[in-house]
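Exercise 4. Each item below gives a protein and its sequence. For each, produce the structure-token representation.

Item: glucose-6-phosphate isomerase (Methanofollis liminatans DSM 4140).
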Amino acid sequence: MFHWNGPLPEPHIRTLADMKGVLAAPDIGADDPDRPLYFMYRDLALNEEDRLWLSARSLRYDMTVIPPGVIGPEFVKTKGHYHPENPAGVRYPEVYEVIEGEAHFLLQRPDASDVVLVKAGAGDVVVIPPGFGHVTINPGNVDLVMANLVSTAFSSDYAPYAAMGGAACYEMADGTFVKNPRYPGTATVRMAAPLPVPAFCTAPGTPIYGLVGRERCLSFLNRPEEYIEAFNACLRDVGENCVCAPRP
Ligand SMILES: O=P(O)(O)OC[C@H]1O[C@](O)(CO)[C@@H](O)[C@@H]1O
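Answer:
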């Protein structure tokens, strides 16, 4: 179990049946639909003061545990979703912190014109910029424990990933990337690394829970339109691209 000093509600559990439509091997799951894949502890706060501060600003702190494993031929991963636009017409962003284990954040524009893989380890803080859908993969052999801060002003949109059979590429259990044939053209994954973002007070090794109570650091989550330059500087291209192989 991960370290958390506050009240812990029952987790929401994503099962194999919930992953229908987003897997590399669509038939996996029929025989074990209740297999739990990952555990989401939503809306956490260490104390009442923090809870009130977060809810007054329409923010939520979650922790998610993704045990290692495979789903058929691919690594275990989250279902994947997009965030809708805020009242100013900019899609809501999100910020994640890897607490334990290893994470591959697979981001993509809805038309897959840009697919980005951010590899992150314990202590890394990764901003999901507006306009990118995201799937989180556990490529390791230990639990991935991560936290996120996100606006509560919207519901995630799962339909586009489900309609397209998942993300533009699948990360297979041998570490290779295989193209999802439902997307047109070739798919290239651009490798990127998280950068510290002073405007969001994010830096490696700095737990994002410490931003609770700091108005200026978290206003980007509800008012992303004021931070477009900072979003453009939150990921660094590592100069490696990977073309997703056609499905055998
Ligand atoms: O909603 P999905 O795609 O299953 O992904 C789960 C993740 O997304 C969140 O709902 C936040 O966006 C987290 O609670 C969790 O880590």
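Check: The pocket of 6-O-phosphono-beta-D-fructofuranose is lined by residues 14, 40, 42, 62, 64, 78-81, 94, 148, 150, 156 (CB under 6 Å).
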